[in-house]
Amino acid sequence: MEPGLVSSKSYAAGELWKWVIAMEKYAKAFRDIEPKKQKLNLLKDKLKSKEDKLIDLQSKLTELKQAISQLNEGLTKVTEETERYKEEAKDLQTDSDRAEKLVFGLASSKDSLSEKKKKKKKSTLR
Fold first, then answer.
1. Reduced to 3 states, what is the DSSP secondary structure of residue 1?
2. If DSSP states are collapsed to H, E and C, what string results for 12-30?
3. DSSP type of residue 2
4. In whole angstroms, what is the distance from residue 88 CA to residue 81 CA?
5. How far apart are CA 79 and CA 73, in angstroms?
6. Average pLDDT, the chain
7. d(CA 64, CA 88)
8. CA distance 69 to 14
9. In this predicted model, what pLDDT tens digit does every residue of 26-46 receive, in sequence order?
10. Are 1 and 17 in contact (CB under 8 A)?
């Protein structure tokens, strides 16, 4: 039924009829919108939960990055110490080899001196 038709019979009835039609349209819109509002609220709650989880994970990631950084610094220090100890070991080995050659050379010199002394004694005794 048309509001204009009702208004032609009675102005008050026509206005009342417009009001009824507006209320019906509002009810239809409310039925369409209300489930969407509920879904929106549910999605907002899920989003808030996910954002909180993201913040927590970002915090843990920052902590892990700091731990990795500290471990890398420690690794660098240990690597440098290892290289320094290898160099010291190499130097000590070189010194040890030289000392061994020196001791062997001195022992040979002692033996040859002993031989010379014995020969000298023998020659003086004759």
1. coil
2. HHHHHHHHHHHHHHHHHHH
3. -
4. 10
5. 10
6. 90
7. 36
8. 79
9. 999 999 999 999 999 999 999
10. yes
Measured CA angle at 59 (ends 55, 60), to 5 deg? 120
CA dist., res. 81 & res. 3, Å (int): 95
73 touches 79 (CB < 8 A): no
Q: Which two tokens stand for residue 40?
A: 């929106």
Residues 6 or more apart in contact with residue 1 via CB below 8 angstroms: 17
- CA pair distance 114, 123, nearest whole angstrom: 14
Is the pTM here over 0.70, yes or no? no
The Cα-based distances of 10 to 1, 2, 6, 13 in angstroms read 14, 13, 6, 5
Structure tokens at 93: 């080995």
Distance CA 46, CA 32 (A): 22
Tokens encoding 75: 């690794």
